[in-house]
Amino acid sequence: MFIKNPLWRVGQMLGVVLLLALVFSASTAYACGCGIYIPRDGDAQVAQERSLLRWDGTREMIVMSLGVLGGSKQAAIILPVPSKADVQLADAKIFDELDELTKPLERQETEWVFMPVLGAGARAPEGVGGAPPVTVLSRQNLGPFDVANLAATDAAALKTWLDENGFALDPRTTEILAPNIEKNWTFVAVRVQPEQASLQLQGDLAPLAIAFDSLELVYPMRSTALADNQQTVVLYVLADHRVEKSTSFGSSRVSYANWLEPSSLASNSTLAPFVERKYFLTKYIDSVNPNQVNDDFKFSFASQDTPYREVKIRTVRQDVSGLVLLACRFGWLLRPPCLVWQRCFGLDRRM
Prior knowledge:
Oligomer: single chain
Low-confidence stretches: 1-30, 39-47, 68-72, 118-129, 196-203
Helix content: 10-25%
Number of helices: 6
Mean pLDDT: 75
Number of domains: 2
Largest sheet: 9 strands, mixed
Structural class: alpha+beta
Radius of gyration: 27 Å
Order of helices and strands: HEEEEEEHEEEHHEEEEEEEEEEEHH
Shape: globular
Strand content: 35-45%
Distance between the termini: 12 Å
């Protein structure tokens, strides 16, 4: 019987997805993947970022969710998008449903291991000319969010407007946002504060659904260059076909890809309003290195709509030491001692 070395399996099974935290101060801006998150006071950390992207070829919607640990009384987010955006609140449960829908399949494997007693406790190891530099396209209050839609032809003027209206940004933001201004993008500025002044911003912030016209599928990432640490970003993309991402800025993997039909969703599904017709759902998990970020995430259709789903293998170890020793005992009666020794202790393995 072939007996696997436990170290071989341990080496195969190593894989940890880290939720990377960023520690904020009142004078420093830290980036989430899609925008720049700036706490005004307190001690806060972005624990995770999840976003749903839906694109029908001409219009895109980004549903953005940030999980915040610690707390602050006020914060701001700035999100560059290709055109004027419509913004509304979304249901946070949509990401719970997406997580459940795309979670890895589990498969159990049995590993037969030989763990002879070696001693007590011994075991195996484990802009346009003439126009004002900043134009307010719209402004609205949505729960704890003060949302401003802005057009700008000058990065410095944009920063000044944001500072004067309570959306304080890191001075480096001017340089980061300049390429978006050159492309005539607009900006969704979000000031976040608790609905009650005595409370703090913490836990999962209510998601915002941001919809805008766009001839390409894009996820704003330039602001992540301001982050001090690696960022973990989870993206769910609904489109007419499976999508490929042209840039990664670190490690990136597809963990789920398959068609999604409206009929497959429950009547009370929080995802249903976003799946009014058949879409292909692609899930990306990225670990982003801020030092590599010099553009946004851009997507194109894959050559084939190949379904995929990660498989999580759960290994159950079975100690066969007793059976091996028993076989060896009987083997002495039937085989030459040297052959029994080789077979019992793996010296005669054939790879």
